[in-house]
Amino acid sequence: MSGDKAPALVSAPSDLIYYHVKDSSPVDPEVKKGYQERYIHSEIYKHFPEINSVVHSHSEAVLPFTMNGVPMKPAFHIAGFLGTEVPNFDIKPLYQDGDVQSMLVNSERFGSYLASKFSKSKMAQLDHNVVLMKNHGFTTVGKSIKQVVYRAVYTHVNANVQSNAIISRNAHLGTHTSVSSLATKTSGRLGDELIYLDEDQTLGCMQMNDSTQERPWGLWEREVEVCPLYVNKAKFQQER
Ligand SMILES: [Zn+2]
User: What is the mean pLDDT of the chain?
Assistant: First the structure.
Protein backbone atom coordinates (compact mmCIF):
# COMPACT_ATOMS: atom_id res chain seq x y z
CA MET A 1 0.00 0.00 0.00
CA SER A 2 0.99 3.63 -0.38
CA GLY A 3 2.92 3.93 2.86
CA ASP A 4 2.31 7.18 4.70
CA LYS A 5 1.65 9.17 1.51
CA ALA A 6 -1.53 10.06 -0.32
CA PRO A 7 -1.75 7.44 -3.11
CA ALA A 8 -1.42 10.09 -5.84
CA LEU A 9 1.99 11.09 -4.46
CA VAL A 10 3.53 7.62 -4.67
CA SER A 11 6.45 7.90 -7.09
CA ALA A 12 8.77 4.95 -6.38
CA PRO A 13 8.69 1.40 -4.94
CA SER A 14 10.28 2.78 -1.76
CA ASP A 15 7.03 4.69 -1.10
CA LEU A 16 5.16 1.39 -0.66
CA ILE A 17 4.65 -0.63 2.51
CA TYR A 18 4.05 -4.38 2.30
CA TYR A 19 1.65 -6.03 4.74
CA HIS A 20 0.73 -9.61 5.62
CA VAL A 21 -2.79 -10.51 4.51
CA LYS A 22 -3.34 -12.63 7.63
CA ASP A 23 -3.38 -9.71 10.09
CA SER A 24 -2.33 -6.52 8.24
CA SER A 25 0.96 -6.43 10.14
CA PRO A 26 3.89 -4.90 8.19
CA VAL A 27 6.32 -7.36 6.58
CA ASP A 28 9.13 -5.11 7.84
CA PRO A 29 8.44 -4.47 11.56
CA GLU A 30 10.66 -1.36 11.47
CA VAL A 31 8.66 0.28 8.74
CA LYS A 32 7.20 3.78 9.07
CA LYS A 33 3.57 4.39 9.96
CA GLY A 34 1.01 3.34 7.34
CA TYR A 35 -2.71 3.60 6.67
CA GLN A 36 -4.99 2.63 9.54
CA GLU A 37 -7.67 1.34 7.16
CA ARG A 38 -5.43 -1.34 5.61
CA TYR A 39 -7.73 -3.90 7.30
CA ILE A 40 -10.32 -3.17 4.62
CA HIS A 41 -7.91 -4.68 2.10
CA SER A 42 -6.45 -7.53 4.15
CA GLU A 43 -9.81 -8.88 5.34
CA ILE A 44 -11.27 -8.86 1.83
CA TYR A 45 -8.19 -10.64 0.42
CA LYS A 46 -8.35 -13.15 3.27
CA HIS A 47 -11.98 -14.05 2.69
CA PHE A 48 -12.16 -13.88 -1.11
CA PRO A 49 -9.03 -15.42 -2.71
CA GLU A 50 -10.25 -14.54 -6.22
CA ILE A 51 -9.96 -10.82 -5.39
CA ASN A 52 -6.57 -9.27 -6.16
CA SER A 53 -7.32 -5.56 -5.89
CA VAL A 54 -9.40 -3.35 -3.59
CA VAL A 55 -10.28 0.36 -3.79
CA HIS A 56 -11.68 2.29 -0.83
CA SER A 57 -13.03 5.79 -1.56
CA HIS A 58 -14.65 8.77 0.15
CA SER A 59 -16.33 9.92 -3.10
CA GLU A 60 -18.53 12.94 -2.43
CA ALA A 61 -20.97 11.78 -5.12
CA VAL A 62 -21.47 8.40 -3.41
CA LEU A 63 -21.62 9.68 0.18
CA PRO A 64 -25.30 10.82 0.06
CA PHE A 65 -26.38 7.26 -0.78
CA THR A 66 -24.67 5.98 2.37
CA MET A 67 -26.93 8.08 4.60
CA ASN A 68 -30.11 9.25 2.82
CA GLY A 69 -32.05 5.99 2.68
CA VAL A 70 -32.08 5.96 -1.13
CA PRO A 71 -30.68 2.64 -2.37
CA MET A 72 -27.89 2.96 -4.94
CA LYS A 73 -29.01 1.35 -8.20
CA PRO A 74 -27.36 0.80 -11.60
CA ALA A 75 -28.53 3.80 -13.61
CA PHE A 76 -26.86 3.00 -16.93
CA HIS A 77 -25.10 0.31 -18.94
CA ILE A 78 -21.58 1.11 -17.70
CA ALA A 79 -22.56 0.30 -14.11
CA GLY A 80 -23.86 -3.27 -14.44
CA PHE A 81 -21.22 -4.42 -11.93
CA LEU A 82 -23.30 -2.75 -9.19
CA GLY A 83 -25.89 -5.53 -9.50
CA THR A 84 -29.44 -4.91 -8.38
CA GLU A 85 -28.49 -4.37 -4.73
CA VAL A 86 -25.62 -2.44 -3.17
CA PRO A 87 -25.28 -3.22 0.58
CA ASN A 88 -24.58 -0.49 3.11
CA PHE A 89 -22.04 -1.24 5.86
CA ASP A 90 -22.69 0.50 9.19
CA ILE A 91 -19.83 0.45 11.71
CA LYS A 92 -21.86 2.01 14.54
CA PRO A 93 -23.34 -1.24 16.02
CA LEU A 94 -19.84 -2.73 16.24
CA TYR A 95 -18.56 -0.16 18.70
CA GLN A 96 -18.02 -1.25 22.28
CA ASP A 97 -17.72 0.85 25.43
CA GLY A 98 -14.56 2.94 25.34
CA ASP A 99 -14.03 2.65 21.57
CA VAL A 100 -13.03 5.84 19.78
CA GLN A 101 -15.79 6.14 17.17
CA SER A 102 -13.59 7.47 14.36
CA MET A 103 -15.52 5.56 11.66
CA LEU A 104 -12.21 4.08 10.45
CA VAL A 105 -12.01 0.38 9.59
CA ASN A 106 -8.85 0.05 11.67
CA SER A 107 -9.08 -3.47 13.12
CA GLU A 108 -9.53 -7.06 11.92
CA ARG A 109 -12.96 -7.10 13.54
CA PHE A 110 -14.22 -4.09 11.61
CA GLY A 111 -12.56 -5.28 8.39
CA SER A 112 -14.02 -8.76 8.68
CA TYR A 113 -17.53 -7.37 9.11
CA LEU A 114 -17.09 -5.11 6.10
CA ALA A 115 -15.85 -8.11 4.04
CA SER A 116 -18.95 -10.07 5.12
CA LYS A 117 -21.17 -7.47 3.43
CA PHE A 118 -19.79 -8.59 0.03
CA SER A 119 -21.50 -11.97 0.50
CA LYS A 120 -25.13 -12.95 1.01
CA SER A 121 -24.18 -16.22 2.72
CA LYS A 122 -21.57 -15.90 5.46
CA MET A 123 -18.66 -15.31 3.06
CA ALA A 124 -19.36 -18.51 1.13
CA GLN A 125 -19.06 -16.55 -2.09
CA LEU A 126 -18.67 -13.04 -3.41
CA ASP A 127 -22.13 -11.70 -4.31
CA HIS A 128 -21.49 -7.94 -4.48
CA ASN A 129 -18.75 -5.92 -6.15
CA VAL A 130 -19.46 -2.69 -4.27
CA VAL A 131 -20.38 -2.02 -0.64
CA LEU A 132 -21.35 1.43 0.62
CA MET A 133 -20.07 2.54 4.02
CA LYS A 134 -22.46 4.65 6.06
CA ASN A 135 -21.27 8.26 6.56
CA HIS A 136 -17.87 7.24 5.19
CA GLY A 137 -17.70 6.17 1.52
CA PHE A 138 -17.53 2.87 -0.33
CA THR A 139 -15.29 -0.09 -1.12
CA THR A 140 -15.10 -2.03 -4.38
CA VAL A 141 -13.23 -5.17 -5.39
CA GLY A 142 -11.84 -6.73 -8.57
CA LYS A 143 -9.74 -9.51 -9.99
CA SER A 144 -7.25 -6.95 -11.34
CA ILE A 145 -6.17 -3.35 -10.78
CA LYS A 146 -7.77 -2.37 -14.10
CA GLN A 147 -11.09 -3.92 -13.17
CA VAL A 148 -11.26 -2.38 -9.71
CA VAL A 149 -10.25 1.11 -10.91
CA TYR A 150 -12.96 0.89 -13.56
CA ARG A 151 -15.50 -0.08 -10.91
CA ALA A 152 -14.41 2.68 -8.54
CA VAL A 153 -14.62 5.39 -11.21
CA TYR A 154 -18.02 4.27 -12.44
CA THR A 155 -19.49 3.84 -8.96
CA HIS A 156 -18.76 7.56 -8.56
CA VAL A 157 -20.21 8.37 -12.01
CA ASN A 158 -23.32 6.25 -11.38
CA ALA A 159 -23.96 8.12 -8.12
CA ASN A 160 -23.90 11.42 -10.00
CA VAL A 161 -26.23 10.11 -12.71
CA GLN A 162 -28.68 8.67 -10.18
CA SER A 163 -28.66 11.86 -8.10
CA ASN A 164 -29.32 13.97 -11.19
CA ALA A 165 -32.16 11.64 -12.21
CA ILE A 166 -33.77 12.05 -8.78
CA ILE A 167 -33.30 15.83 -8.74
CA SER A 168 -34.61 16.37 -12.27
CA ARG A 169 -37.55 14.04 -11.66
CA ASN A 170 -38.42 15.89 -8.45
CA ALA A 171 -38.23 19.20 -10.30
CA HIS A 172 -40.61 17.84 -12.90
CA LEU A 173 -43.13 16.26 -10.53
CA GLY A 174 -42.81 18.62 -7.57
CA THR A 175 -40.96 18.15 -4.33
CA HIS A 176 -43.88 16.50 -2.53
CA THR A 177 -42.77 13.06 -3.80
CA SER A 178 -41.48 10.98 -0.91
CA VAL A 179 -38.03 9.40 -0.78
CA SER A 180 -39.50 5.90 -0.44
CA SER A 181 -41.48 6.23 -3.63
CA LEU A 182 -38.39 7.55 -5.40
CA ALA A 183 -36.37 4.58 -4.30
CA THR A 184 -38.48 1.93 -5.96
CA LYS A 185 -39.92 1.48 -9.37
CA THR A 186 -43.58 2.36 -9.22
CA SER A 187 -46.29 1.98 -11.78
CA GLY A 188 -48.34 4.98 -12.68
CA ARG A 189 -48.52 7.84 -15.07
CA LEU A 190 -45.74 8.60 -17.50
CA GLY A 191 -42.79 10.18 -15.75
CA ASP A 192 -43.63 8.57 -12.45
CA GLU A 193 -40.90 5.97 -12.58
CA LEU A 194 -37.22 5.81 -11.92
CA ILE A 195 -36.12 2.92 -14.07
CA TYR A 196 -32.84 1.13 -13.37
CA LEU A 197 -31.14 -1.86 -14.98
CA ASP A 198 -32.82 -5.17 -14.14
CA GLU A 199 -30.90 -8.30 -13.16
CA ASP A 200 -30.44 -9.61 -16.71
CA GLN A 201 -29.19 -6.19 -17.84
CA THR A 202 -26.70 -5.89 -14.96
CA LEU A 203 -25.23 -9.30 -15.81
CA GLY A 204 -25.07 -8.58 -19.55
CA CYS A 205 -23.54 -5.14 -19.06
CA MET A 206 -20.98 -6.42 -16.55
CA GLN A 207 -19.86 -9.04 -19.07
CA MET A 208 -19.63 -6.42 -21.82
CA ASN A 209 -17.69 -3.94 -19.63
CA ASP A 210 -15.21 -6.59 -18.47
CA SER A 211 -14.24 -7.11 -22.11
CA THR A 212 -13.76 -3.40 -22.90
CA GLN A 213 -11.80 -2.09 -19.89
CA GLU A 214 -8.65 -1.49 -21.90
CA ARG A 215 -10.12 1.60 -23.59
CA PRO A 216 -10.82 3.74 -20.52
CA TRP A 217 -7.68 2.38 -18.85
CA GLY A 218 -5.54 3.65 -21.74
CA LEU A 219 -7.05 7.12 -21.34
CA TRP A 220 -6.58 7.22 -17.57
CA GLU A 221 -2.99 6.00 -17.94
CA ARG A 222 -2.26 8.80 -20.41
CA GLU A 223 -3.90 11.41 -18.16
CA VAL A 224 -1.61 10.36 -15.32
CA GLU A 225 1.45 10.42 -17.58
CA VAL A 226 0.89 13.99 -18.78
CA CYS A 227 -0.29 15.50 -15.47
CA PRO A 228 2.63 17.08 -13.56
CA LEU A 229 1.04 16.10 -10.24
CA TYR A 230 2.07 12.48 -10.81
CA VAL A 231 5.77 11.59 -10.79
CA ASN A 232 7.19 8.20 -11.79
CA LYS A 233 10.80 8.14 -10.56
CA ALA A 234 11.33 4.56 -11.71
CA LYS A 235 10.47 5.51 -15.29
CA PHE A 236 12.57 8.69 -15.07
CA GLN A 237 15.63 6.70 -14.01
CA GLN A 238 15.09 4.20 -16.84
CA GLU A 239 14.97 6.99 -19.41
CA ARG A 240 18.18 8.58 -18.12
ZN1 LIG B 1 -11.97 5.60 4.71
Answer: 90
